[in-house]
Amino acid sequence: MTSAAVSKPGAKRAARTVSLHWFRKGLRLHDNPALLEACEGATHVYPVFILDPHFAKPDVIGVLRYRFMLQTIKNLDDNLREIGSRLFVVKGQPAEALPRLFREWGVTKLTFESDTEPYAKVRDRHVCELAAEHQVHVQIFPSHTLHDPEAYVARLQGKDVPTVYQSFVKLFASMGPVAPVAPTVDAKRLPSPAPEYLSGRDRKKADQGNGHAGGEKIEEDRTRSDDFSVPGLSGIGYPETDAPTLYPGGERAALARMQEHLANVKYIVTFEKPKTSPNALRPSTTVLSPYLKHGALSSRLFYHSLCSTLAQHKGPHTQPPVSLVGQLLWREFFYLQGHATPNFDKMVGNPICRQIPWGKDAELLGAWEEARTGYPFIDACMTQLREEGWIHHLARHALACFLTRGDLWQSWEEGARVFEKYLLDADWSVNTGNWLWLSASAFFHQYFRVYSPVAFGAKTDKEGEYIRKYLPVLRKMPSKYIYEPWKAPKGVQETAGCVVGRDYPHPVVDHATVSKQLMGKMKAAYDANKEGGAKGEEKSGEKKRPAGEDGKGGKTKKRA
């Protein structure tokens, strides 16, 4: 266990410990060492979540993603109330909100889970300085990944962080066992906040959990249980939405979903990510990524649960990079890259990123984001993303390749921002790493392996049922033309009720022509900066490319 402590030099620790645990990610009661530390020796513990205006921007973080987060903290509040506590939700800048709470509650200890994203690093350093000014002891615990990213860096002893997956797997193996799962916080472990912040029912649970037959009698008008409540979307400046909730947020849903998959031992031992379908009408993968991103599910719990299932299975099972354990290692790989690489989410100033002169065409970018490219498979993938907040990793691959080196020649940074907006599992390190990979800007260098926006989807869905679901305008189009409706005779289009150019757009580019042109541009960019950004392409652990990729032979990468 790694922790960091910050306190004002010479400050005396108070005999009475009042802890504030600051939830950011790690939105769970299981495997939460920072929350356990908050409980240690405390008279009162205040679990806090701060709605930072830095993130509450509908044009940056979409309504479905924000709704998922609100659902997750609501479930956290429910779970805390079940054990006699509650979540205190505060709106404002952390640097302004936390000092006010330190003073109001007499806080002596602050705990939180470490965060490796650039904004979080700056924010947390500032908060630690403010805590020291208020004589508040700070303890920070890494529990969002299997190992602390900084521990990987220390293990390398000054060597470069591996940018090849198989090299990273060797580094992971050298780290020793993954830390065991910390005990779940329950009523016996968690001291309640001051009683005036609890409703009568919650106070009774708190008294029972702390071993008291009855608590201090507090008149109802002194109760402040309505303060610090979890707001709705409109309370944050977001529009309300009636979009169906396919993946409800929260620890409860996360654990149920994990257990459902673990119960299917055959699925666990035979899982191969490349063999799952990008256009299945029901997800062919676990869809645990949104829960891992928000920390509603501990990656360590999932890892140890997988290892236990595999150990009890008598027979062969799949291995990284394609197995489920392999997917967790992809996540670790990209988290390490994000932590250790300067300007990881940018082209300029990023030491592992090739400098490629991407175009800037707002119309092409808008057509791609708004599902108006004229390529049904691409538009169906984007429609699913916008309407549901999740798409299969190969659908993400197809969208990313199409926007960048495959067809539109737009910057991967623009694409990453769009995915950040719509994906429920928008994870800064993983999302950035995948865009660097798919644009052939880092990690992967076979830029001539391009996903066909026509053939790739047809490989697993010849009849186009996925397209019919997400693009109803094409529902009656014959299967022969479902991936290329512009090739249908005018009479067929009219009979199908979908005339290209009237009911559905013409293709924004001619893939057959433009993909060859862009291969030439990529070659020129590679030749122009062979030294810059050429470091660490994947040379092992890859699988042959899926059918539907343009080119002959080749390999493709598996997403975390």
UniProtKB/TrEMBL annotation:
Annotated site residue numbers, Electron transfer via tryptophanyl radical: W358, W412, W435
Cofactor(s) named in the record: FAD
UniProt xrefs under PROSITE patterns: PHR_CRY_ALPHA_BETA
Record: residues binding FAD: 285-289, 327-334, 425-427
Family: Belongs to the DNA photolyase class-1 family.
Family matches, as PANTHER family: CRYPTOCHROME (PTHR11455), CRYPTOCHROME CIRCADIAN CLOCK 5 ISOFORM X1 (PTHR11455:SF9)
Descriptive protein name: Photolyase/cryptochrome alpha/beta domain-containing protein
Organism: Nannochloropsis salina CCMP1776
